[in-house]
Amino acid sequence: MCPSIVRNTRASERDVSVGPWRDGERARRYDSASNRHFYGTLLAKLAMGAGPFPAGSGLDLGCGSGFATEGLLQAFPGVAWRGVDVSAPMLARAAAKPAVAAVSLCHAAAEALPYVAGSFAVVVSNFSWHWFEPAAGDEVLRVLQPGGWLLVSAPLRHFSSAEGNRWLARKLHARRRNFRRLGSQGLRMEEMANLLPGEMRIHRLESVVIEERFPDAQTLLTTLESRGSLHAIFGADGLESFSDKPESGLAFEWHVGLLHAQRGP
Ligand SMILES: C[S@@+](CC[C@H](N)C(=O)[O-])C[C@H]1O[C@@H](n2cnc3c(N)ncnc32)[C@H](O)[C@@H]1O
Predict the structure, then answer these.
(1) Cβ of residue 228 lying under 6 Å from some atom of ligand 1
(2) Which residue did the predictor score with more confidence, 249 or 255?
């Protein structure tokens, strides 16, 4: 087991694609009140109708700075939660939160979890699965108990006609030379149903829309960048790709897939 923030020797951020998450300054920008609201809202939607879980441990996989962990502790106080993330700066932000202090946090990659088989009654991934390599599915299957639960929220690849989405799409189109197709851009709905390589009994699979309003396009861009969303599209170029004067008052829609599934026997 991984009792505290330690470096997992099997796989670490040296071996997997950490995307934008390695950077301490980015972790600081991520850990904002508006992001707490966004990720907390997502977690609340994901937790709806879930549980009770069999007695035992739960894993917040890709726990980041602990927003979802806080929600899980409140929603399911009977579960002994642990957190794993590949980013040391994000974990340090989680460890500094009083509400998360009692949670065992582990610096490891989803693709090589430092837990023995069948360790968890439930694994939760709140807006992090789209960053994982496919090997994470094998690992989650391994660490879940037979009959254990998998709860995932992930952004869907979906075109929305909200004005903020259209504004961003126009910018993307104008900068299409920079466009790189990365897995972290989101999942398709049918991919959500096949996250684990083994048998999964699906109890809930739906898409929801989360709408946010931004005072201007610059705020929209910096917020999306803090969540890694622009990095997923442009790689390291990020915000520098947008030089046009921002417009004002933009609604932005996130189409999110929610999955509740149970590992087969
Ligand atoms: C958008 S954040 C979500 C964090 C958290 N679940 C929340 O609700 O606030 C995505 C997180 O996934 C983590 N991550 C990305 N790739 C990972 C991997 N291969 N293994 C473990 N964590 C990973 C990042 O470091 C980041 O903290």
Answers:
(1) yes
(2) 255
CA of 248 from ligand 1 middle (Å) equals 30
Q: What is the pLDDT of residues 130-179, one digit of tens each?
A: 999 999 999 999 999 999 999 999 999 888 889 888 888 887 777 666 66
Those residues with Cβ within 8 angstroms of residue 36's Cβ, 6 or more apart along the chain or in another chain: 67
Instruction: Give per-residue pLDDT as tens, 37-65.
Output: 999 999 999 999 998 998 899 999 999 99
In a domain? residue 247: no
Q: Tell me if 248 is assigned to some domain.
A: no
The one-letter code for the residue type at 180 is R
Query: Which domain CATH number covers 77?
Result: 3.40.50.150
Range of the domain at 36: 19-157+183-208+256-263
User: Pocket of ligand 1, candidates 13, 85, 226: which has the most ligand atoms within 8 Å of its Cβ, to mutate?
Assistant: 85
Smallest Cα–Cα separation from 229: which of 95, 63, 38, 89? 38
Q: Which of 90, 105, 107, 131 to mutate to test the pocket of ligand 1 (most atoms within 8 A of CB)?
A: 131
Query: Facing residues of 7 across strands?
Result: 107
61 is a domain residue: yes
Phi, psi at 182, each rounded to 5°: -120, 150
- Residue 149 lies inside a defined structural domain of this protein: yes
CA of 215 to the centre of ligand 1 (A): 27
